[in-house]
């Protein structure tokens, strides 16, 4: 069996970041966006997905010309975003409860 020689990681991946200005811009944009704003925007996206799913489902039920696969895809997207939101909420509540149990 022949041995395989892999190059060192430092030769494959550069040790310095050449695009620091882009990373600094992203970091400053993230700093300016507060947690409350982020949370509000995320919940608005979940609501938007739910409303879109409801609209397509209603159109399908009324017999309007809608692609069934599109209705199903939209419905699944809305379901997945809602489940993810619920899981994030549950983890946040668990973290809060764990902090409340800590003794100082």
Give a description of the structure.
- The protein has 104 residues and is mainly α.
- The protein has a domain at 34-101.
- The protein has helices spanning 9-12, 20-32, 35-62, 68-101.
- Helix 3 packs antiparallel against helix 4 (68-101).
- It is flat and about 60 Å long.
Give the biggest sheet: none
> Structural class from helices and strands?
mainly alpha
Number of DSSP-assigned strands:
0
The whole-number mean of residue pLDDT values reads 82
Q: With helices defined by DSSP (H or I, 4 residues minimum), what is the helix count?
A: 4
For the CA atoms, what is the radius of gyration? 23 Å
**Gap between N and C termini, in Å?**
60 Å
Strand content: under 5%
Poorly predicted tracts of residues: none
Helical proportion, percent range: over 70%
Overall 3D shape: flat
Order of helices and strands: HHHH
Concise account of the structure shown:
This protein is mainly alpha-helical and 104 residues long. Helix content is 76%, strand content 0%.
Question: Which features characterize this protein?
Answer:
single chain, 104 residues, mainly alpha
Question: What is the fold's blueprint, element by element?
Answer:
Blueprint: H1 9-12, H2 20-32, H3 35-62, H4 68-101
Helix pairs in contact: 3-4
């Amino acid at each position: 069996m022949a041995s395989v020689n892999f190059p060192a990681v430092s030769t494959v991946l550069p040790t310095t970041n050449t695009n620091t200005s882009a990373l600094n811009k992203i970091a400053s944009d993230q700093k300016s966006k507060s947690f409350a704003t982020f949370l509000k925007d995320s919940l608005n996206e979940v609501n938007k997905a739910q409303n879109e799913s409801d609209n397509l489902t209603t159109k399908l039920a009324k017999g309007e010309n809608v692609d069934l696969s599109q209705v199903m895809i939209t419905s699944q997207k809305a379901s997945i975003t809602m489940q993810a939101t619920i899981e994030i909420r549950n983890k946040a509540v668990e973290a809060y409860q764990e902090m409340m149990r800590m003794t100082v």
